[in-house]
Amino acid sequence: KQEVTQIPAALSVPEGENLVLNCSFTDSAIYNLQWFRQDPGKGLTSLLLIQSSQREQTSGRLNASLDKSSGRSTLYIAASQPGDSATYLCAVRNSGNTPLVFGKGTRLSVIA
Amino acid sequence: DVKVTQSSRYLVKRTGEKVFLECVQDMDHENMFWYRQDPGLGLRLIYFSYDVKMKEKGDIPEGYSVSREKKERFSLILESASTNQTSMYLCASRGFRQGYEQYFGPGTRLTVT
Asked: ∠ CA B91-A35-B39 to the nearest 5 degrees?
């Protein structure tokens, strides 16, 4: 059974710092991996989708990488801002038409 | 832009009431999902649907049912609401057109008293 782990559970950094959020998964036979952002009391916003054949995806200050063989993905945030404060969730979809399996998220605080 | 809408942002119901939560997506997505989210427990899948009139149980289907009569609409039904169903409910959809990228609605905060 696929399991997704995100470490650390919480992270606090000063504004302007570059940071990396980690995601690991136990079954490398994935179809895709998706990173989301969630603000308190709100729904999830999709940030990046990486298909199993891709190594990375970029959107603005965000870069997500995927290493299927080691079961790991990282989300890199450049020049962090207070507006980046949120919970970031990683989710993987196994092969076939299966639901996403979510990690519990990393709660990020960027201090001005 | 993909849009997933949910019928209410906040809802207060009494124990024993029948509750309907509606979700509509505008991108002709094949797959739709209902989750609940509780502090410390993360996102938990209640039910999902791969296509019209299809439904599959998720991890915690007890006390819930669903209906998908039209492709764009997926309804979650609490047959007899209980206080332990107080939660944030999130709907999501995905489809071939967006490479199966999953999109979420804004959520419904349900309180059962």
From this structure: 55
